[in-house]
Amino acid sequence: MTFNDIFKSGFLENISSVSILDMSVALLLAFGLGMFIFFVYKKTFSGVMYSSSFGVTLIAMTMITTIVILAVTSNVVLSLGMVGALSIVRFRTAIKEPLDIAFLFWSITAGITLAAGMILLAVAGSIVTGIMLLLFVNRKSCLNPYIVVISCRDYESERAAKEFLNQQVRKCVIKSKSAQKGAVELNAEIRMKDENTDFINILSEMNGINSAVLVSYNGDYMG
């Protein structure tokens, strides 16, 4: 085929550019890898609100990317057109969790490698990535930061609460403090010595302490 023949190719001539067998195998593998990515995302989700639509988006993203790359690799003219068309696409949906970006790139990469014929790389790479995420994201550690919200009556109870926390945890840093007549509220970031949280029960029963709340802290604290 010459360079002129490429630009003279018609619509009907492009129907058989990708065989039905190649297309079926690629889409089935893309669906399987998309389901695996969705499974890993569901098991490793640690945000506030789980979104099932995002999980379905990961499956669709893998399959759509596979379709796009199959089309690009089968036709030179179409590849040039898609570069221009996709360059003007803009997504304005905010990604709240940094880990969600990794899942999006994972699904896109899986679709690209599958459509390029690198099936072993796509499958093996996805399995290794999934195992790594399952091991590290779900790992619980007492060194993870927590926020303690303490409601005190006066200065003496505040001082006693801070001294008690310093004895019970590995590290304690006051993040914010609000005071009004007859009430003081402290927000402190702590690193616990172990996974035992019984010290919160003891803290809440101390004289002058109205309440004590322990909250998991993901690093997005706004003081």
Q: Proportion of β residues?
A: 15-25%
- Calculate Rg over CA atoms: 27 Å
**What would the average pLDDT be, to the nearest integer?**
79
User: Outline, from the CA principal axes?
Assistant: elongated
Task: Please report the total strand number as a whole number.
Answer: 4
Secondary-structure-based class equals alpha+beta
Through-space gap between termini:
66 Å
Low-confidence stretches: none
- Helix percent reads 55-70%
Q: What is the subunit arrangement here?
A: single chain
Largest sheet: 4 strands, antiparallel
Count of helical stretches: 8
Order of helices and strands: HHHHHHEHEEHE
Strand arrangement within the widest β-sheet reads 2-3-1-4
Features:
223 residues; alpha+beta; 4 strands; 17% strand
Structure description:
The protein is of the alpha+beta class. It is built from 8 helices and 4 strands; from the N terminus they run ααααααβαββαβ. It has helices at residues 3-8, 20-44, 52-74, 76-86, 98-115, 119-137, 155-168, 198-204; strands at 145-152, 169-180, 183-192, 209-216. Strands 2-3-1-4 form a 4-stranded antiparallel sheet, covered by helices on one side. Strand 2 (169-180) and strand 3 form a beta hairpin. Helix 2 (20-44) packs antiparallel against helix 3 and helix 5 (98-115) packs antiparallel against helix 6 (119-137). The chain is elongated and about 80 Å long. The protein starts with a helix and ends in a 7-residue tail after the last strand. The model has no long low-confidence stretch (mean pLDDT 79).
